[in-house]
Protein: Aspartate-semialdehyde dehydrogenase
Amino acid sequence: MKKLVGFVGWRGMVGSVLLNRLRKNNDFKNFNSVFLTTSQLNFNSPDIKNCISNNLKDAYNIKYLMSLDIIVSCQGQEYTKKVYTKLKNMHWKGYWIDASSFLRMKEDAIIVLDPINYNAIKLGINKGIKTFVGGNCTVSLMLLALGGLFTNNLIEWISVATYQSISGSGSKSMLELLNQIGYVYKNISSYLSTSTSSILKIEKKITFLLNSKNCPKNFMKVPLLGNVFPWIDSLMENGQTKEEWKGFVETNKILNYKYNIPIDGICVRVPTLRCHSQVFTIKLKKDISIKEIKYLLSSHNSWVKIIKNNIDHTISKLNPLQVTNTLNIPIGRIKKLNFGKKYLSAFSVGDQLLWGAAEPLRRILNILISQ
Structure:
């Protein structure tokens, strides 16, 4: 008998990307599905193969949820807090797959990134683990980009600078950035139609507009257009932001080594629409050649693409626009640093809505379906 999978939060950005990936890979043929809602009860379900109900079901109906073999939630941590605990207290035997961060550090939950921790996932399933959670977006992208170095135990420590797109902050923030673009263009378009306009005059006008009270900023405290925010998430006691803290704790939980690899850095929000970029400064445990480093990185998984360290390849292939809506994880600017032979730098880009969010969920769902 096919397993019955319930989907919650499937209309949001991560949920929509997940459904598209499941459709594209014809995964729905392998299980029966039902779609749940927190706000549109009895509306029509999406047209999906093997969907058992034409209407949306109540995502808060615990009795109904108890009948599901697997629940996939992209609804956010508040939903997880309300529903997950109730199901566990009622001894629900199903699998819970979650996109939010709420359960990631729980002892009985596995952060899933199967190209990195497939063995740990299989071992957890065999031991009766029922909770599987997608990891932080930049953590997953870093682990895939540097998988060849991590799995060969070559990294002593990493300093990371992330440049994270606005879609990582949610659809409302993304729309606000677009509204900022529209607001500025509406007020400077006349300057652009004549070659006599001074570029410094235009820049001054744009800066004035972005600093004015009329600039759209309902969800961001200050405009992101023409700007960067070196702060993502809340403040931790040690001065890190929570996003920076996740880089250390989640990476090491996924790797599950007997020791922790020191990882720190600064996370920055930038005005790109999609994809997160990262600069890695790495201290290796031993001196190995750039040629060997490139081989280890490229041979670890099929998604990593080595970009030649020259201007043409870098600007044409190592950027968010080229990576958006693909599973590719290009990595370039690979070079030794003047600090010493064991010091390495690299720059990588990945789609945070795919490998950074939806794709690990799709893959763990398929692993659980095959059990």
Observations:
- The longest helix spans residues 171-192.
- Residues 234 and 348 are 25 Å apart (CA to CA).
